[in-house]
Amino acid sequence: KSYIFIKVTKIILQIPKQVPELRELFKSVGIEFYEADIRFPMRFLMDKNIKGSLNIEGSFDVEDTVDRIYKEPELTPTEFKPELKVISLDIETSSDGKKLYSIALYSKDYQKVLLVSKKELKNILTFKDESSLLNAFVNEIKTFDPDIITGWNVLNFDLKYLSEKFKKHKIEFSISKDLSKPKFKFSDNFFKASTVDIVGRQVLDAIDLLKSSFIKMQDYKLSTVASKVLGKSKLIGELNKGLEIDRLFKESPENLAEYNLNDSILVYQIIEKTGILDLTIKRSTLTGMELNKVSSSIASLDSLYIREANQNSIVCPTSKFEERTERIKGGYVMDSIPGIYEFIINLDFKSLYPTIMMTFNIDPASFVENPETTKNLVKSPNDAYFKNQEGILPTILKKIFNEREIATKNKDNLTKQALKILLVSFFGVMASPNCRFYNLKIANAITHFARFIIQLTAKKIEEKGLRVIYQDTDSAYVISNKKSLEEAEKQGEELKDYVNDFFKDYIKKEYNRESHLEFEFEKVFIKFFMPRLRHTEAGAKKRYAGLVIKDGKEKLEFTGLEFVRGDWTPLAKKFQEELLWLIFHNEDPDKFIIGFVKDLEKGKFDDLLVYRKSIRKELEEYTRITPAHVKAARKLKKLESNKIEYILTEDGPEPVQNIKHKIDYKHYINKQIKTIADAVLIFFNKN
Hints:
Distance between the termini: 57 Å
Number of helices: 19
Mean pLDDT: 91
Structural class: alpha+beta
Number of strands: 24
Strand order of the largest sheet: 8-7-6-5-9-12
Helix content: 25-40%
């Protein structure tokens, strides 16, 4: 909808629950209302323009459990960055889950293991029973007084288990700052998040922190991530772990305590090494979102947009879900020209969608639904119209870009990463029916401009006598007519300047706007492989590999091919990498391929045959078709993760925890090796 500029009245109620009552009353008599869905605390923070940290002035009282209680204080925003106390929590239980063995707590300059044991043990706090241990755990939390409680699946496993134990033993689970009990909402499946509210403390699961920081892993087991990030391992392997923990509890409680503490240390060190907590805090102070909600892109846009709009005397619509009637038109992806090439120049537009929004003033507050005149309006390629005066979203984006420039100058990589994540999220939010600003015409204006710009870019490059072999959304791949890396890189820089100068003039002339588009020379691929679609002559999309020079060394880079796809085995990845390395160095691959297949049949690569795939819904919901990973999952005694690992045997897919039949090597040769080999060999008239 277009914004209609009329005067509105702000109504402030004393009790939050009165807001929905008044909202329903207005709805019943046909009175329009705005921003009536914003939660009371968030409304307060928006009105005070507080994001993450604040300054408090005024008189206060002191009580036992709280340092200060202010009466009518003055609250103002501040740039203060908190130093938060973090504690990593891990528990160990019996293999049947009935007994709590121990609790480990770790932080900087602090480590404790609480263990149920009738004998005293060095450097371990021992307790005669579970009740004593639970009471001691509460006291440890109170004494250490953490701001953040973390762990590996800490909410759905550790805290959930402990809450049940506290309930069973009728002990108050009072680990909040004000000694109140945590308010849990546990979910019983993998597909719905559990939540907890602990007054004065925040529970941040390390797995969630990694995922929301876009740190991708093969899987999110602690052993996998610790190995990748720290080069360290757990003290007990996955095989028969439960039985080994039972044995240690009976025979060697000191070693069990060491294992328990080591897990909590690994989690703490992963958070420290990756900087994911610092990144989360930075995202919170940028958007005003709570620490456990920084990954909510719709709420983050709301927080920033409504603040900026209100400061410009504009109110925003009340959020309401709309049915998606049609899909947004995506970015332009060119049909590639398949082949094996030398010296391919890769160029792309930096932050294309955000710069399009700034360049053409694409914004809900600037959108004009049915213009009476198109004078001084920006018209998009999908016939959407926008006022040519600065909108809310372009203003926010310019501030973000300015902050990013400052962060770059100051070498502040943390802020740069937080701003990058924020920028990437804005476009997707605009295209979501859950967003209060959802408007398919506005969202499509962005992608239509992107398609227009990238196709016009190819036209301008080809006017220079060069050939574009592929384009994808914001990128272009150009055959250099040069014979050396240095000459090709120089040509890439020249193309970058040529395209930027063109758009600067073009946008000023056609739209009377300043261009914020930034075309960049990315790299030169010394060798480049663009495959065909299987069983056709047509070129594939979003699938290629190339050889580049990085830090003085040759390196293979893959996009979309089997090497980077999670549904292919490590065997396929190893084969593809070694095959392309040979091809890119002009070596005959025949001997390698024949030898690789023979080694596979001899069992030399058995540890590389594991498929890993996630189940997306409950197992019983797979009725129409049953994929291989679901068949494997149904052969498990207990489903402990939504990531299923399985091997293809002569009896079909079997989970790695329960392999009963011989490996089906023919499957791996025909479905993994042959497919990859043929995609390359076709260019040499071989198979």
